[in-house]
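Retry 2 of 3 after timeout on previous attempt. Resubmitting C-alpha cells to design endpoint.
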C-alpha cells in the first residue's frame, strides 16, 4: 500500500511505508510497542522473510498478534518460486515456517474463515482477533472465488518480557 491509501483508513492512528525487500529490519518503531502487525496479500513477495518476521516479533508487545493473510492470487513474476510452485496448503505451511524461524512466537494457527460476530453476552467485548480479521476476509468474499487464508501467531510472554 502507499501512503495515500493508508492515509484514507480512519482506523489507523499511525502508519509507515517501507519496501521490506530493500529494508526488512530497522522499522521506526520501539521494541514491544505495537499490539498487532497485519500483512495482507504481500507475504508471497518477501525475499527475506526471516528478517521481516524477526522485526515483527521485535515490535510486538508480549501477547501481541501477527496476522498474515493471502489468497491464491499473486503477481507471478514477483512472487518467490517457493510460493508459486505450491498449493494453498503449502503456502500456509511456508508462512508457518517463517514464524518458526523466530524464537518466541506461539504455534501459528491457520484460519480459512472468520466466524461472524455472535454478539455474545450483553456488554461483552468483541473478539479482538475477529475484529481485525473480519474486514480482511470480506475483501476476499466480494464477488471472488478466491480462498481466504490467514496465518496467525502471538508474541509469547516470556520471563524476560515481564
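Retry 2 succeeded. Sequence:
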Amino acid at each position: 500500500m502507499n501512503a495515500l491509501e493508508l492515509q484514507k483508513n480512519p482506523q489507523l492512528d499511525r502508519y509507515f511505508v517501507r519496501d521490506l525487500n530493500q529494508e526488512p529490519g530497522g522499522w521506526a518503531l520501539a521494541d514491544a510497542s505495537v499490539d498487532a502487525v497485519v500483512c495482507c496479500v504481500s507475504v508471497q513477495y518477501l525475499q527475506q522473510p526471516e528478517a521481516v518476521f524477526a522485526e515483527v516479533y521485535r515490535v510486538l508487545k508480549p501477547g501481541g498478534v501477527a496476522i498474515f493473510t493471502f489468497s491464491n492470487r499473486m503477481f507471478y513474476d514477483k512472487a518467490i518460486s517457493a510460493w508459486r510452485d505450491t498449493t494453498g496448503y503449502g503456502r500456509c505451511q511456508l508462512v508457518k515456517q517463517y514464524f518458526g524461524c523466530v524464537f518466541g512466537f506461539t504455534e501459528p494457527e491457520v484460519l480459512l474463515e472468520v466466524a461472524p460476530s455472535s454478539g455474545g453476552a450483553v456488554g461483552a467485548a468483541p473478539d479482538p482477533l475477529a475484529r481485525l480479521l473480519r474486514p480482511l476476509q470480506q475483501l476476499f468474499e466480494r464477488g471472488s472465488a478466491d480462498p481466504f487464508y490467514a496465518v496467525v501467531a502471538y508474541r509469547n510472554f516470556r520471563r524476560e518480557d515481564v
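Attempt log closed. The domain at 3-157 is CATH 3.40.50 (Rossmann fold).
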